[in-house]
Amino acid sequence: MTTVAKTPGSGPGAGRGRGRGWGRGRGQGPANPHAAPHRPHSRPLHRSLARALPLSPAVVLLLLFLAGPIAYCAYIAFTDLQLTGQAAESFVGFDNFRTAFGDEAFLNAVWLTLVFTVISALLGQNTLGLALAALMQRASKPVRTLVGGIVITAWVLPEVVAGFLLYAFFRREGTLNAILEWLHLPTQNWLFTLPILAVSFANVWRGTAFSMLVYSAALNEIPKEITEAAEVDGAGGWRRMWHITLPMIRRSIGTNLMLITLQTLSVFGLIWVMTRGGPGGKSQTLPLFMYEEAFQKSMIGYGTAVALLLLVVGSLFSVVYLRLLRTEV
User: What is the Cα–Cα distance from 303 to 286, expressed in whole angstroms?
Assistant: First the structure.
């Protein structure tokens, strides 16, 4: 009896096996040579256009109401445009900026803006918001409800209303001096002697709720196993806060600092209601200085140049915070 050995090229299914399995496995081309050629760039292009189409109205609105006004303000900052007594503006180059940096009132406004931002945002709102969030983690539910309601009520109040409330608190016949008299402590006119500290405290009182909410959400994301393990190892409250909590919420800290800094740089109504930048410019930050030059003195070009410089200051703060966010712990 003779046995015939079968080779890979023989047998009834040799053609099918060679075309379907071996050819593709050895990289010899597609199974069907008559199939239409694959066009790799057509579908991704259509998909990109389809995804961008719903965003086109938002892009148009941003160009019209954000990029457009910024570009127009950048143009006005290089002109001598005035509200009254001028037929047409003329291009003056960098004269408005040179005037600003040579103006003692502008330099005073820059210094007071930095003081107001550091005291009320970086030290006040940020630190107090973190402390309240950390304390409310261990407080009972009634205490959390009461404290959260009080802090958030100050935040949701309109800026003008909050300004009048704090004006009544700091004025000579106000609540603060009444408390000091009851404690037999010396009183003073806080809005006259320490106006920048008064408006800074007012901004802390009004804006701390935002930082508290941000840090409350960040602290809730920390696994309890980590803090419990550190507590078992003997780490105290301050060590746990410094070595565990703060590094784990670093990104939330950077985001919160950036947002409250930009918000504080643009505060206008609160200071205007309480002091109007006085007395003698002792609480005149850049937004108030810009308003006075542009609308009270009718120097739109100069006031817009100051506004452009304020935008640059905010951009510098944002760049610093974004670089800190990219740094790994």
Answer: 10
